[in-house]
Amino acid sequence: MNNRVQGLLLLAAASLCGAVSAESEQTGPESVCAKAQTAINENDWKTVTQCLTPETRDQAAFWLCVTAGLSTEGEAEEQMEARWDALEQVMKKHNMDDDRCDELGFDKMSLEEVVVAFATHVEDPDQLIVDVIGVLQDHGGLDEPVFIFENLADIEIDGDVATATVQRRSDEDPVVVPIRFRRIQDEWRIETFVFPESNRFAKPIETP
């Protein structure tokens, strides 16, 4: 093999290794967090839902519906009622209004059972998340980001599972909270969603 051909093969091999390395970086936990955070900044909530594992997406849909119905300190009654009315229309659209919840027997279930039943009967949880966030944006209650995926650190990968930490924003010292990831069909997804520090979203919610 002459030097010219050998040089070309070495260059091709180096390029291939670089491509594989770049692809690995693009599909790692850092990448899915960056993708989710960019989507949040661009108000692209459908893309955010696609960064979550299906189980985490289902839980996010449930807890967003619950927290959207909570009042915040000092909130005007008119704004609160307008948000409730808008949220009621969203729940009807997704066939999960009060009558449907009564029909399913939510009042007789434990919280864990309600979450499972809710996820089972919502046909399009991605769109539900988009719609509920739209209610919060239009009628108050979204002074801070819904989820936090910034300042990722301490990443540890073990097969198809990864752990890391993120910083929740705070007026005082930043609060570091854990976050988990799971690889599904060679694609990393976020398995823990973290609420910001605020009256409405008070603590991180993790999947079991």
Topology:
Elements: H1 3-26, H2 29-41, H3 45-50, H4 54-68, H5 77-93, H6 98-104, H7 111-121, H8 125-139, E1 153-158, E2 161-168, E3 175-184, E4 187-190, E5 192-193, E6 205-206
Précis, in short:
This protein is 52% helix and 15% strand.
Q: Please, could you describe this protein's structure?
A:
This protein has helices at 3-26, 29-41, 45-50, 54-68, 77-93, 98-104, 111-121, 125-139, and strands spanning 153-158, 161-168, 175-184, 187-190, 192-193, 205-206. The protein is α+β, with helices and mostly antiparallel strands and 208 residues long. It has one domain (25-206). Strands 1-2-3-4 form a 4-stranded antiparallel β-sheet, with helices on one face. It has a two-stranded antiparallel sheet with strand order 5-6. A hairpin with a 2-residue loop joins strand 1 (153-158) and strand 2 (161-168). The longest helix is centred in the N-terminal third of the chain and has 24 residues, at 3-26. The protein is globular.
